[in-house]
Amino acid sequence: MKVGIVGCAGRMGRMVIAEVLATPGLSLAGGSEQPISASVGQDVAAQAGFDPAGVFVGDDAAALFKAADVVVDFTQPAATLGHARLAAKTGTALVIGTTGLERKHLDALKKASKKAVIVQAANMSAAVNLLLGLTEQAAAALGPDFDIEIVEMHHRMKVDAPSGTALALGEAAAKGRKVRLADAAERGRDGITGARRPGAIGFAALRGGDVAGTHTVIFAGTGERLELGHVATTRQVFAKGAVRAAQWTKGRKPGLYSMRDVLGMK
Ligand code: NAD
After folding, report:
1. Which domains are seen in the chain, by residue range?
2. CA-CA 20 to 30 A from 182: which of 8, 41, 154, 164?
3. How far apart are the CA of 13 and the centre of ligand 1, in A?
4. Which one of 74, 98, 163 would you pick to mutate in the ligand 1 pocket, going by the greatest count of ligand atoms within 8 A of its CB?
5. In angstroms, rounded to a whole number, what is the distance separating the alpha carbons of residues 236 and 240?
């Protein structure tokens, strides 16, 4: 399978290149970057620190979608929107790890998935996807007497908060409780906030250093507390998951899939 990488000079893009090069049966179709990137014109593998692969970084994502069987996207929401349209136009499968997607982006993915296989997950780690299931189960079993708080920490370069994974955990908790996250979420507290709103699902985001990603879901009851958590020590786990998803797209019918589909957890 030929894998194209949009955002190939980014932190995740370079890790995906490493995974593609290390995976038998996969080759690099090419990469794309923003026109201002210093990587444009360079060899895709070489600019990521590997032996040259003979394919080059371009600023034309349309050409990359034509050349690839599947494209992996760790960029930014506005770019992902354009990539979803290109997937629909070319029928090329698309794996999206970009976070910070809002309703309008998700609606566009849904539309594009009528014509192409799209896998979208805020977190590509197998263990985190298991944590999503456990969170839903715990929220359903413990009920509203337990206050739910979701705490996450990431490296200092992360631009969105709370993390896509924290929001996905919030969605899982809300589903378990049979409420809408939009109604229950409390994102950021400051000053005289008053007592905790009953039924709220709270979020706290910490930023610093090179933390790959830490998430804890706290169920705080009276006299006891349950904490479910995940710690990523390297961001390579996300690149591995993305490449696994890329392989999984082969031969699938168009549709919008999650990492839980890829891992057979549904
Ligand atoms: P980064 O800033 O290092 O890399 C993003 C790259 O995308 C940059 O090189 C940028 O130039 C490029 N880019 C932006 N717009 C583009 C466009 N229109 N065309 C081509 N390239 C474009 O960021 P990062 O740390 O690699 O993270 C990228 C995204 O992936 C973020 O949203 C992050 O939250 C998310 N992420 C998801 C997971 C997951 O498991 N789903 C894991 C880690 C990071």
Report:
1. 2-120+235-262 (3.40.50.720), 126-232 (3.30.360.10)
2. 154
3. 7
4. 74
5. 6
Identify whether 155 is a catalytic site residue: no
Q: Which residues does 194 contact at the CB level (< 8 Å), separation at least 6?
A: none
Q: How many other CB atoms are there within 10 angstroms of residue 88's CB atom?
A: 21
Q: How far is CA 192 from CA 10, 60, 195, 196, 199, in A?
A: 40, 51, 9, 11, 19
Active site residue 158: yes
Measured in angstroms, how far is the CA atom of residue 124 from the centroid of ligand 1? 14
pTM of the entire predicted model = 0.90
128-160 as b/e: b if 16+ CB within 10 A: bbebbeebbebbeebeeebbbbbbbbbeeebee
> What is the tens place of the pLDDT at every residue in 46-59?
999 999 999 999 99
* Paired residues of 94 in beta bridges: 71, 118
What are 65-110's pLDDT values in tens digits? 999 999 999 999 999 999 999 999 999 999 999 999 999 999 999 9
113: left (phi over 0), alpha (psi -120 to 50) or beta: alpha
